Amino acid sequence: MTDPIDPDDVEAAEQRASVPAEEQRGLRRPARRATSSSQRSDVPAYEQKAGPVSFVNQSVDELKKVAWPTKEEMGGYFVAVLVFVVFIMLLVSLLDTGLGWVVLKVFGS
Questions:
Q1: Half-sphere exposure of 47 (CA within 13 A, CB side)
Q2: What's the pLDDT tens digit per position in 10-33?
Q3: How far does CA 96 lie from the centroid of its chain?
């Protein structure tokens, strides 16, 4: 039998990876309470409907996790967007004027 600590032993490494870290350290997970069959649902948790209060609470929890930009970052983003929008406006205006001139020259009027 091979040494389970050998880093080159792929099979032993796969066995160690399939065992939770708590069990590898000798710790046990707390036992879960048994639920009655009426409390269990065949619908996965991600498909279960949440009530309005639960939805708002979950939304607030998610918003707390967001890394909000600072004032300086917002200023930089604002300037970048403003410059980009002005550039695109100029580009579209020049294309419109140029193509309009070409159409008038080709078809005359």
A1: 4
A2: 676 666 666 665 555 655 666 666
A3: 39
